[in-house]
Give the backbone structure.
Amino acid sequence: MNRMNQDYEEHGYFVQRNFFSEDELRPLKRLLTNFHHAWQQQHASDYAERAVNSAYITGREHLNEQQRLQLFHFIASTKLMRIVNDVLAEGATFMNSQLFFDPANPAQKNYWHRDPQYHLSIDEQKTALSGPEVVHLRIPLVDEPGIELIPGSHRRWDSNEELAVRLQHGQRKNYQALDSGVTVELAAGDLLVFSANMIHRGLYGMDRLSFDILFCDPEPDLLTFIADDCLPEPNILEQLEDASAFEKTLAIKAKLSQQIDNIHLEVSKS
């Protein structure tokens, strides 16, 4: 096990400083800035109210085909896939992409959370700590305050204080400070890899703009909500350096679709 994997297993995250050069980052920043401006216009009310991220970046809603191809090339680069394949031993599977930015209201509070808390019960969140894995690869496009994490919380349940704050029990609020938090500042070109299961919160300020790519173990339940147009077509797959994560997603979706078709067929015969 290499040092990065040791850090991930023990702490739930690691940082590769200066992972991307300015030349590698410049076209990505230009593309995602254009995406963000288009998203803000179409989702003005969401942005004004409380949004701090957008999703499905590789879809067709705000990008043309050439821009999507550029993004697929970036995600499927050997350089990036080598990192995620080291972390996800079961086989990295593309899950989603997100763009994180500052809220429109500068007084808006950030909040402690585990990603699964928005669709899993407490008992299911506890079970999720033993897998399957979901991993964020965060790529800051500008220098930013970074993220605050609770090291090791990807493998253990909340302390009483952490749970009270995260879920706002009693008089606690999810933006209150936690003594167990560790701040990881990020600069443009860094790469932060962290578990979606761990307790964390983004830090606002400095006009942050971070691109997150989410990968997971090849588990069908984790791919329920992925949109078809966020995945590359066959003619694009064959152009990519390492299309394995996209190929795994497409294979699982095809299998799920076949299972649904079989169910419909059986129902029609009954």
Q: What stands out?
A: Residues 132 and 148 are 23 Å apart (CA to CA). The two ends are 53 Å apart (CA to CA).
